Amino acid sequence: MKSLMLYYIVMQYITMAVIDSSTLIYLTKASCKEILAKMHNVIAITPKVYEETVIMGKNYPESTIIEENISNGIIKVESPQKILRGLPESLGSGEKEAISAAFERDLLLISDDVHAIRVALSFGLNVRTSETLLIEAYIKGLISLEELKRKISALMTYKSLRPDVYVLLNTLLRIFEEEEGSER
After folding, report:
1. Predicted TM-score of the model (pTM)
2. Which of 63, 78, 82, 167 is within CB 3.0–4.6 Å of 57 for a Cys-Cys bond?
3. Under CATH, which number does the domain 2-129 receive?
4. Do 39 and 168 meet the contact criterion of CB atoms below 8 Å apart?
5. Could you read off the pLDDT tens digit of each residue along the chain, which spans 184 residues?
6. What's 16-69 look like in SS3?
7. In the chain, beta strands by DSSP E
């Protein structure tokens, strides 16, 4: 009984998130993955995401970083029990596995793929993008406003943002600056 109680106590403090290939690559290239590790004790990828980022991406520097993160236990490879029924054929196999894994364990899905996000939301999943992850880290006090600006700028070097997302990010940054200015 004590071991079961200890298990439940420990599990309250372990947070896990499932991330897809493109988002993992963007966050790795922009040196933002460490923020993800601060927010979630376990970062999970599926075997297909591993294949896409490490095996097929072996000629890219982020592939080596991701492989080291797996060896060091920062990233864990987790297989879904099964692929969800009703996932559109137009989704990539990495996104299908990531959505299925997140659904099975009721985990946060981190994806920058608009189509995958729509599908994940239709299944009731909690989803973050690279940008919302960084904003959440700032709101939780894990990074400073200056670090948030640097990380978003670095991310935009590798990832295209829709114009409406760009405008929203700039508006949020101005609001954050005003809030910090009024606190002084």
Report:
1. 0.86
2. 63
3. 3.40.50.1010
4. no
5. 455 454 444 444 447 899 999 999 999 999 888 888 888 888 999 999 999 999 998 999 999 999 999 999 889 999 999 999 999 999 999 999 999 999 999 999 999 999 999 999 999 999 999 999 999 899 889 999 999 999 999 999 999 888 888 898 989 899 889 888 777 5
6. EEEECHHHHHHHHHCCCHHHHHHHCCEEEECHHHHHHHHHCCCCCHHHHHHHHH
7. 16-19, 42-45, 75-77, 108-110, 127-128
